[in-house]
Design brief:
There is one protein chain. The chain is an alpha+beta fold and 553 residues long. Helices cover 52% and strands 14% of the residues. It folds into three domains: 4-178, Formiminotransferase, N-terminal subdomain (Formiminotransferase-cyclodeaminase, Chain B, domain 1, 2-Layer Sandwich), CATH 3.30.990; 183-340, Formiminotransferase, C-terminal subdomain (Alpha-Beta Plaits), CATH 3.30.70.670; 352-552, Four Helix Bundle (Hemerythrin (Met), subunit A) (Up-down Bundle). Strands 1, 2, 3, 4, 5, 6 and 7 form a seven-stranded mixed sheet that branches. It has a four-stranded antiparallel sheet with strand order 11-12-8-13. A two-stranded antiparallel ribbon has the order 9-10. α13 (368-391) packs antiparallel against α16 (489-514) and α14 runs antiparallel to α15 (442-483). It is globular.
Length: 553
Amino acid sequence: MRQIIECVPNFSEGRDMQIIRQITDAISSVEGVTLLDVDPGKATNRTVVTFVGDADAVVEAAYRGIAKAAEVIDMRKHHGEHPRMGATDVCPFVPVANATMEDCIACAKKLGERVGSTLNIPVYLYESAATSPERKNLATIRAGEYEGIEKKILDPMWKPDFGPAQFNPQTGNCIIGARDFLVAFNVNLNTTSVRRANSIAFDVRENGRVDPSGAKDAQGEALRIPGACKSVKAIGWFIEEYGIAQVSMNLTNIRDTPVHIAFDACVNSAASRGMRVTGSELVGLIPLQCLIDAGKYFLEKQERSIGVSEEELIKITVKSMGLDELAPFNPADKIIEYKLGSTTGKLVSMNLRAFANETASESPAPGGGSIAAYCGALGISLATMVANLSSHKKGWDARWKEFSDVADKGQQLKDRLLFMVDEDTAAFNKIMDAFGLPKATPDEKSARKKAIQDATVYAIEVPFKVMQLSFESMALIKAMAENGNPNSVSDAGVGALCARTAVLGAFLNVKINASGLDDKALAANKIAMAQKIADDAMAMEKEILSIVDSKIG
């Protein structure tokens, strides 16, 4: 897997698209960078840009964006609702895949040094890249905003980490850091009052509010009443563009407070204060898992099965939180994995006819391995259908959780088997690529032979995993034949037939690929394990069909 680091610079321009385009063009000019999202806000006069790449690429792209922003944005003329310090106000690096927080800290320091020395912009490091505890919190560094820089920067405590310790009127300061994935999330209210929106923000955010009693701690600092949600920062503001007040939140650790929990905290606070949440909006991108978890959360509140498709869970999330109230919500534009195109393979994306046509063509792939995986996916899909029907069966309301758990496990197995449909073809292609390597010299012959053997091992492991997953699915199929909606027992039977076909079909691929392995002991061991799964699957199929036949009569 290639390294993926996300960079999310916030530029202090949200109205002039020509200026915004110049900045994003500078970012996109770097090879190896993928621009994922550009989200301008008129009221905030601020644009959030999201792009990804490896460490070197994102640092170079961020530098070019900051340099262009310093050229085309004049902070002396800037006004907007959002707190800000500079033309490039904040520029965090975020680990996404095959990257660590240490990698992102290194990116922040490398970029900060370059921006400070070549662009003469004062730079502060924040969050995980901070050089002192006082600089970890973005709000602390930003306190006083652009208007307060000229005086603040002369304080030795606020000497920049990089760049000159003097006010740059045109660019202001730049805050660069490394952090976990942050979700910028605004909740819409049926009020225009900023004061009332702030009251909800104080109820929700971790920092809470100052104790109105005036009590102080041992150091003489005012005591605070903490808010409901850990790792949440929030303020209230009025958005003229929409004519409403919002609670604007940054969820800095979505493991501490998922987006749906923050949303419901706002709902509860608003209701207690005579207001109503009407919807919400996401600024920038969000991980797919956040929306999946939210969909399950809202379904569970309704006592409905959570074992539905990824697409349905996203739909439930969007409607439950009103994410489409202010503008259409397009998952392809808002979910980071969808933007990267990393969730579905070529074969799984086809319709049924196209997939059958591709299989029937003169190309050797997809072949039996991919078809076996697809049979397995269909088998567990039938069991999942029986579970979902059972969870809604009249008179069985008290058993909804039992069937929901089965359906949820079924969906997970279905998705893993669907992944294997494309992965089996990918394994075949690895072998073909290895055979195509040069073999003119002894070193090339040795490298080619090793590549062929490595690819062969992988081509064994993929169908073996299909066998394991398909056999695992048979326990759920059996449970639905025994305990599910009796009107759907024949569907469970067909599911068992599909699962058995998947196991035996994948076994054929294990054996044919093992025949090309030089390590005969490894090949024999893998075939022996696969034979055990095949025998168990045939026995399980008989048990399930016996149950089905007894119920059909």
